[in-house]
Each structure stands twice: as structure tokens, then as C-alpha cells.
Amino acid sequence: MRKVRISVNGKEIEFEVKKLICAGYTGRDKELVVKHIRELELLGVPPPLKIPTMYVISPHLITTDENVEVVSDKTSGEVEYVLLFGRDEVYVTVGSDHTDREVEKIDVRRSKELCPKIIAREAWRFEEVKDHWDEILIRSFIKKGNEIKIYQEGKLSSILHPNDLVKEIGETFNGLVLFSGTIPLKEKPAFSNYYKIEIVDPVKDRSIVHQYNVIVKRL
After folding, report:
1. For residues 118 and 93, is the Cβ–Cβ distance under 8 A?
2. Residues 70, 214 contacting (CB under 8 angstroms)
3. Phi, psi torsion values for 15, nearest 5 degrees
4. pTM of the model
5. Structural domain boundaries enclosing 23
6. Number of folded domains that form the chain
7. Beta strand 53-57 with 176-179: parallel, antiparallel or unpaired?
């Protein structure tokens, strides 16, 4: 198990992560999902056995740190919404399913196990956003040289709704953390030493932002 501290409406809570699941290929438009799978195949990434796919990952990989270590310079992040299932509440935050892109060509689940799974230090209650869920946006930014560029941007309406993700995993329980799967890139996959991830609620005029640096530690 892994414990993280997050702030919900100004109140800090300690969340005990008992199980971590990273969802993949979760776009609502199935034709676009299949197209993306074909594009990945051209890059050497094996296709999934089913759509969507759920990868069970070690909960010890969860972190809210602003500096994360990896063992390869061929890793990259991707912005996702993240659900944290508590005893009486479900919380929503933003995260990055950082992944080793070289190992991904051999074993997708293993490629995820090799990198931290980053989440922000703040969260919202799902009850507060469920009525306007599809209007919420997520974004990611990367640093290229001295310039920070937008890397991903899209509404949550393009990703499976939490209720549909829950149907795919079959059950929820206190301590489960679920990464949603990501949105398309605005450019070709890029490797950066800096990422900023953001979830924006335009209805309540608020956002959660987290940034992190990637440090390559050679074995």
C-alpha cells in the first residue's frame, strides 16, 4: 500500500492507495481508438487484447512529487483524469501515466511499471462535478528547449465517463485509484524533462495544476 496526502476544498486528507489501475484505449469514439491503435502498431506497440484495457499497476508507484526518477531517456507523460475511491467519497484529480516508450513496444504493462504515476496534491469531490462532467478540460504542457508548449488538450467528453470505466473493472472499493486513459497529442510523441498537467472546471471557474521534472538515473 501507499499513502498520499491530498487537499480537498482546503482540507488535507491522507489517502491510502490499495490498488492502482491504469486504463487504456478509453476514447468514446471507437473509430478514433482503432485508428490510434493502428498508429501505435506502426511504432512497434502491440495492439491490446480488448478495448478498453485495464492495467493493474503497483500502488507504490503513485506519487505527488515534483521530481521523479526514471531509468531511460525514452519516457513520456500523458495527462489523464484520476479517480480516488474513498470510504464514503470519490475524488477527482489530474494525473500523468508516465511510461517507458521503448519497453512499451515489448510489454505495455511493464512499460507502465517502470515509471512513477504522478497525481496532483489537490482533488475535487466527484459529486461537485458530475453534473457538468463533459465540460471539464484536461491539458498537458512540455518544455522544448527554453519554451513551454501545449502538448495535449481536450474535454473529458472524449474519454469514457467514470460510470463506464467502473463497469469495465467490475467493482470499486476504498483505496482504489483509477487512471482514465489519455487524450490525443497535439504533435508527435516527445520526450521532455518537464511536464505540467492541468484539469479545468469552466463551470465552477477553478483548476488543479501540477508540474514535475523528470530526472534520468542510469542503472
Report:
1. no
2. yes
3. -110, 125
4. 0.96
5. 2-216
6. 1
7. unpaired
